[in-house]
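Work Package 4 report. The design task specified in the project plan requires that, given a folded chain encoded as structure tokens, an amino acid be chosen for each position. We show below one input record used in the internal validation round.
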């Protein structure tokens, strides 16, 4: 029999499940822009693109243009388009406002091996350029007619070279970056502050047209515009548009002031008609996020801090449970069959609010301690629970650490931080390798990448607890249990997708993985004990 050698350089055994918050080494100055691509977690570290394969962090090559390294900075978010990683990459020369007119703006696509680098000709020796952000930002790109639509940004538009492009949209087809001319652009450096389009929560593709927000010189607020693939046109020159655009039952709605009222407007493109569908209490500036659409109803937090439910005909406001509370302040999300949101009580306390469709009132999930500040605004559903940040009471004057917490449908559980830092930041969460990743501010006040997942144990600890080991076996792997039979083997890829689920009923089980990358192998023994092994193929 051929002697098997433990494949230590290809596996990282995790042993028994020990869920905790763990800081990922070598991720200082994390850019808070993690995205899963090509079976790895990509993000920027100190403004440079790196990737994490579940075991270690490695850098990528510096992009070049005309055979010269750019030496740029990745400051925004990334997006996957045409199965490639896309991001804006800027050269700063040097990083000082005095010399900002010497900057250059590049747009880059990356397929995991090769770069395609485009120099934006309108931002050569000029400040600003294409900006990509995610979440609720109006810099979040949108796909339209198979192309990626982006917008540009500038913090100082006093340089002539940047003036002509500050207030335009851009389209990208995978090869060519094209400026979409702004017909309402006025090239005047003294009045250009209001000349800008809005994407993200302000934009939506409806009936083959792109609708977006548009603020232009001479107005006292935003207007709504339409792009048909060739031309941009304002829909109306008098109404003030507040975003929150959505499609409900194939009807287009958005938030707007249409004198003398503010409300949800039903727009009919064929006749260019604006119809008031439901009034919304002011201030409208607080309700520009897109609503949650669930079971043919729209759920939105309105300016008077209440949850509104709109079915296309009737808007119902759900009363807050406690008189005097500030009320619903966060964007609604769906968890199970219920609607959840951040709810503010009195004294600066935040709670997890819940609404069951059909009920006449809201309910509030109690915080673990009455004196705690409470939950954050960002939510992520993961492995049957709703995750968010959570702040307890101050540990010292003006210092309130933030922790990771989850709601499992019954109660809130708060997880300890790995050090005495400010903790988990109320930012975006990303799932990779069946684990939850997020940004964390450590004791040195440095932002790093952290995860909530299985605590890493050594090989010896794994064998001691469960007697399970894994070997590289010809073209595949073999899992061996020292004492108990293996009941079940489950293999997940980096995105959490199950690629194998098999019953073993033996002390050894062999399998192959067709793709390359890092995979999670869950081993369930007959005695009920579970071991998780991370393998690299």
């Amino acid at each position: 029999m051929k002697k098997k050698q433990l494949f230590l350089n290809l596996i990282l055994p995790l042993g028994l499940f020990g869920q905790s918050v763990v800081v990922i080494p070598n991720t200082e100055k994390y850019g808070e822009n993690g995205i899963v691509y090509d079976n790895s977690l990509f993000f920027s570290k100190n403004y440079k693109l790196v990737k994490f394969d579940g075991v270690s962090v490695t850098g990528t090559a510096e992009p070049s243009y005309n055979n010269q390294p750019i030496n740029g900075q990745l400051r925004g978010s990334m997006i996957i388009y045409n199965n490639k990683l896309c991001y804006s990459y800027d050269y700063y020369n040097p990083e000082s406002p005095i010399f900002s007119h010497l900057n250059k703006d590049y747009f880059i696509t990356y397929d995991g091996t090769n770069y395609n680098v485009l120099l934006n000709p309108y931002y050569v020796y000029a400040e600003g350029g294409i900006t990509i952000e995610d979440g609720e930002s109006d810099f979040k790109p949108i796909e339209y007619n198979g192309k990626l639509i982006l917008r540009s940004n500038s913090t100082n538009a006093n340089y002539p070279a940047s003036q002509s492009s500050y207030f335009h949209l851009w389209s990208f087809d995978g090869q060519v970056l094209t400026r979409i001319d702004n017909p309402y652009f006025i090239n005047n450096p003294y009045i250009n502050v209001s000349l800008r389009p809005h994407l993200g929560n302000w934009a939506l593709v409806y009936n083959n047209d792109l609708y977006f927000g548009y603020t232009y010189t001479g107005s006292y607020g935003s207007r709504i515009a339409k792009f048909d693939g060739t031309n941009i046109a304002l829909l109306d020159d008098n109404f003030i548009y507040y975003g929150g655009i959505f499609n409900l039952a194939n009807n287009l709605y958005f938030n707007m002031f249409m004198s003398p009222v503010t409300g949800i407007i039903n727009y009919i493109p064929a006749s260019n008609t604006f119809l008031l569908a439901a009034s919304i209490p002011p201030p409208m500036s607080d309700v520009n996020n897109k609503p949650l659409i669930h079971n043919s109803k729209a759920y939105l937090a309105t300016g008077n801090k209440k949850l509104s439910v709109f079915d296309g005909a009737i808007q119902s406001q759900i009363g807050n449970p406690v008189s005097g509370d500030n009320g619903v302040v966060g964007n609604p999300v769906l968890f199970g069959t219920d609607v959840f949101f951040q709810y503010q009580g009195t004294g600066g306390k935040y709670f997890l609010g819940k609404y069951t469709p059909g009920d006449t009132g809201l309910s509030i999930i109690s915080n673990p301690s009455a004196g705690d500040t409470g939950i954050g605004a960002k939510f992520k559903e993961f492995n049957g629970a709703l995750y968010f940040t959570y702040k307890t009471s101050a540990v010292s004057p003006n210092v309130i650490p933030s922790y990771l917490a989850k709601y499992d449908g019954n109660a809130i559980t708060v997880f300890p931080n790995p050090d005495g830092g400010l903790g988990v930041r109320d930012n975006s969460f990303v799932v990779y390798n069946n684990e939850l990743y997020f940004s964390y501010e450590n004791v040195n006040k440095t932002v790093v990448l952290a995860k909530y997942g299985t605590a890493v144990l050594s090989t010896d600890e794994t064998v001691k607890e469960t007697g399970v080991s894994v070997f590289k076996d010809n073209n595949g792997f073999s899992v061996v249990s020292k004492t108990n039979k293996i009941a079940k083997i489950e293999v997940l890829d980096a995105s959490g997708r199950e690629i194998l689920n098999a019953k073993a009923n033996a002390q050894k089980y062999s399998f192959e993985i067709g793709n390359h990358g890092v995979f999670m192998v869950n081993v369930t023994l007959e005695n009920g004990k579970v071991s998780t092994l991370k393998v690299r193929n």
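Residues 41 and 52 are 5 Å apart (CA to CA). Validation will be extended to a larger panel in the next phase.
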